[in-house]
Amino acid sequence: MFDLTGRTALVTGATGGIGGAIARALHGQGATVAISGTRAEALQQLADELGERVHVLPANLKDAASVDALPGQAEAALGGLDVLVHNAGITRDNLFLRMKDEEWADVIQVNLTAGFRLYRAALKGMMKRRRGRLIGITSVVGVTGNPGQGNYAASKAGLIGMSKSLAAEVASRGITVNCIAPGFIESPMTDALNEKQKEASLAHIPLGRFGQGAEVAAAAVYLASDEAAYVTGHTLQVNGGIAMV
Amino acid sequence: MSDIAERVKKIVVEHLGVDAEKVTENASFIDDLGADSLDTVELVMAFEEEFGVEIPDDAAETILTVGDATKFLEKNAAQA
User: Fold this and answer.
1) What is the ipTM score, two decimals?
2) Min Cα–Cα distance to chain A from B77, Å
């Protein structure tokens, strides 16, 4: 099950905790992967770790032209593009009353608009090949909201709505469009919380712990696989039960 | 048949997978050739690529038959 041998995948934000885990998992199932991100050195490090079947494509998702070009570069490097995982995301947290226009715009630009551009560019080839998997990494806060994250929550909710609309448009072409919504995942961000903050967060998580990047990546492997062919327009929650939606 | 008409016909045959003899000037993409709305968008994009021309949405909406496409491209194509 979930064999991705011979499949090709592009993962954005691959130097992050979740993105790296997704790249490793898709690669581990046999896929040839293109890893993208802003930090070329970290990408190269991941590529060295993975060994064969990996291509490094640095890109800045704030730059529209480089976003538009990325799926084409991946197709050229990989000889096709079966799976696109839009994982790259940023936060610029602030209380709503204090939120600057730039904080709003930057988050929407990278998390949502870059996803729109990547999907649009990747779709051309996928429609011709009558096959494709578009997977957006959203967040539990896109469904529940979170104080201090009006911009981030909007971008992640936007990704869900965009994916559902697109899923309906391209279903007839064998292309599925889904999201994964992680909750608290162990990362430098959660490491930075003090004990009191950690305890407070954990009190709301029925499974009583933070998640692992690999547990999010497993969801991506499933959605990328042939076995998930009948799943589209869905958002898979990987959140330890913190929000049961 | 003009060169443009030939190239339009070739694109339509390739994209819709229909027999060449069905692709007549009056053939409607949707009613006669079995295209859905996504096919018509793909066709317009293929025309744009082949002829190096941008087809605005309001113009694309008027291209319903093979002849419509040929006429539009004969008028607007950059590289006939």
Assistant:
1) 0.81
2) 22
Cα–Cα–Cα angle for A160, B44, A123, rounded to 5 degrees: 30
On chain B, the residues whose CB falls within 8 A of the CB of A170 are 38
pTM of the model: 0.93
Rounded Cα distance between A150 and A96, Å, is 6
Residues of A with catalytic roles:
152
CB A151 within 8 A of CB A103: yes
- Residue B77 burial class via C-beta count within 10 angstroms: exposed 0-12, middle 13-18, buried 19 and up: middle
Q: Give the residue ranges of the annotated binding site of A for NADP(+).
A: 38, 87, 152-156, 185
% of chain B at pLDDT higher than 90: 89
Q: Which of A46, A71, A48, A70 is nearest to A59 (CA)?
A: A70
Which alpha helices (DSSP H) does chain A contain, by range? 17-28, 40-50, 64-78, 101-107, 114-129, 141-144, 150-170, 188-191, 195-202, 213-224
Give the tens place of pLDDT for each residue, B16-55: 999 999 999 999 999 999 999 999 999 999 999 999 999 9
Helices (H) then strands (E): counts for chain A: 10, 7
Q: Using beta carbons and an 8 Å cutoff, which residues of A are at the interface with B?
A: 124, 127, 169-170, 172-173
Separation CA A34–CA A23 (nearest Å) = 8
Element (H, E) at B9: helix B3-16
3-state class (DSSP) for residue A20:
helix
Give how far A127 is from chain B: nearest CA, Å.
Answer: 9
Chain B residues touching residue A124 (CB < 8 angstroms):
45
- Chain A contact probe: residue of B16, B36, B38 with most A CBs at under 10 A: B38
| A120, A173, A175: best to mutate for the B interface, most B CBs within 10 A | A173
